[in-house]
Design goal:
This protein has helices at 5-41, 45-82, 93-101, 125-137, 141-148, 157-162, 166-171, 206-220, 227-250, 254-268, 272-280; strands at 103-111, 117-122, 152-155, 177-185, 188-198. It is of the alpha+beta class and 297 residues long. Strands 2-1-5-4-3 form a 5-stranded antiparallel sheet, sandwiched between helices. A hairpin with a 5-residue loop joins strand 1 (103-111) and strand 2. Helix 2 packs across helix 3 (93-101). The longest helix is centred in the first third of the chain and has 38 residues, at 45-82. The radius of gyration is 22 Å and the shape is elongated. 42% of the residues are buried.
């Protein structure tokens, strides 16, 4: 990642997003207060209850934008400290999300209508590896939170009991507890936020749900400058492109080709996008003889 002009753009963008989120929060608070005043002046019980329910909805939306502003402010602070310091690691937006969740790490996954992964972002390498395991093995907390549209949590021996493949594999990363909450938009599940080794009481807390809501409404909808998500979109796009190529080569459905890529990646202990890059470069040819690779390097 370059410094100077390239670093100033993400910083300015983060500051703009924080300011916009604060403005939206203030606007929603004003609307909530207006309905609360109307409720106080209303003699009709039905209308009073209606105004109070509308006010509560605006209060909830205001809190969501306020949380988003805090995440963007924290990101801007880290970007400011990073600018001009090439010796420091790139300041990931998701690092602040993990800190806000009170967890050792966090990962965000966005999905399409068929729950296929479209984009991803993680706070650190263990979180990214845990997220990759879900993609390769087809099971895990984010997948369950997405498919059920509800919170998921497991720790210790329950990890392997719930996810026979993912549980032991994530344990090898040193992770002993996971939790995930769905990201919902207009009643539809669009992904999940997963946290790893969260602080006691974090799993199932309202704070985790509030951060997920803030990410959905104030970050995902306006992802300009959040480089984590942009990079994640590119990685998954490579995998799907490679699956299409393998599908044509083997005359099999794309879904089968994708499973073959996943199996090969898991067997080799490498991320799926690395396998995809080799396929797209013509360096690797997958076949069905062994379920892994028949190809050239």
């Amino acid at each position: 990642m370059a410094i100077g002009g390239e670093a100033s753009d993400p910083l300015a963008s983060a500051e703009r997003r924080a300011a916009a989120a604060r403005a939206r929060s203030a606007h929603e608070t004003d609307r909530a207060e207006r309905h609360e005043r109307l409720a106080g002046d209303c003699a009709d019980a039905f209308l009073r209850d209606l105004h109070l329910r509308i006010a509560a909805a605006h209060r909830s939306t205001s809190a969501s934008h306020r949380t988003a502003a805090r995440l963007e402010d924290a990101f801007a602070v880290r970007l400011g400290a990073w600018a001009g310091r090439p010796d420091l690691p790139w300041q990931l937006f998701m690092t602040g999300v993990a800190e806000a969740c009170g967890s050792g790490g966090a990962a965000l996954t966005l999905v399409g209508r068929t729950f296929d992964e479209l984009a991803l972002a993680a706070s650190d390498e263990p979180s990214r590896a845990a997220q990759e395991l879900e993609f390769l093995l087809g099971e895990g907390p984010a997948r369950d939170a997405t498919s059920t549209a509800g919170p998921v949590a497991a720790n210790g021996a329950a990890l392997a009991e719930r996810w026979p493949g993912y549980g032991p594999a994530v344990g090898e990363l040193g992770i002993t507890e996971v939790a995930a909450v769905p990201l919902t938009l207009d009643g539809n599940c669009v992904g999940a936020l997963a946290v790893y080794d969260p602080a006691p009481g974090t799993a199932g807390s309202t704070a985790l749900a509030e951060i997920a809501e803030a990410l959905t409404h104030s970050v995902i909808l306006t992802p300009v400058g959040v480089l984590d998500l942009h990079e994640g979109i590119e990685l998954r796009a490579k995998v799907h492109q490679a699956a299409g190529m393998v599908s044509v080569q083997l005359d099999r459905p794309v879904a089968d080709a994708l499973e073959l890529i996943r199996a090969y990646a898991f067997g080799e202990g490498v991320p799926a996008h690395r396998v995809a890059e080799r396929i797209l470069a013509g360096e690797l040819l997958l076949g069905w003889g062994t379920g892994h690779s028949s190809g050239n390097t």
